[in-house]
Every structure is written in C-alpha cells, then in structure tokens.
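User: My instructor asked us to take a sequence, write out its structure as tokens, and then describe one feature of it. I'm not sure where to start. Here is the sequence I was given:
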Amino acid sequence: MGLCDGLSHCKLALAFAVLMDLLGGAALLVGVFAPLEIKGQDFGDLLVYTGALLVLVSLAGWVLWYSGNIDGLTSKRELGHISSAVDRLARNISRKIRTYRGHL
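Assistant: Let's start with the prediction itself. The structure tokens for your sequence are:
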C-alpha cells in the first residue's frame, strides 16, 4: 500500500488545494502579525487580501477533488432492469452532442 493510495482520484487537484491553502494561510499570518513597512507605506493589508484570495482559490481545488472522488450511482442495467425511454433519450442526445463537438 503506497503513501497516496487512500487519496483515490484527482491528486493534482488535491495538491493544488493544499498548496493554495498553505500559501494563503502564510500570507494571512504574515500580513497580520509582521510589521511590513517600506518607505513609510504599510503592505500588511496587501498580504491579508492576497492570502484571503488564495484561500478562496483553493476552494475550487477542494471542490474539484471532492467531486472527482464521488463514486457514481449504479445504473439500472447493473441492477438488472431494462433501460427506460429517458435513459435512451439521454444517450442519444449525448451522442449527438459528442459527434457535433467532434466536427468542430
């Protein structure tokens, strides 16, 4: 069993989310607690806002990681039922969209 086996799918999205959280948290802490003045101008607020934005961007990585790890529902065919008209209609529409995009 490897180190990352329990993480399942979307390891890149997880790495992105964790990296953005670490950078954002570090920027927030430095912006709040470190006296950052250059030529009389305070740059602490810039780091606080940048850190908050990085944490917000990391939320996209967490959503991608979480949604990529959701196991799909079992289909009716796997349960032994005959596919319904709605399933056939959805498959036909999906094929038409796929072939249309393939021609672009």
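For the description part of your assignment, you could build on this observation: DSSP finds four helices and two strands in the chain. Try explaining in your own words what that tells you about the chain.
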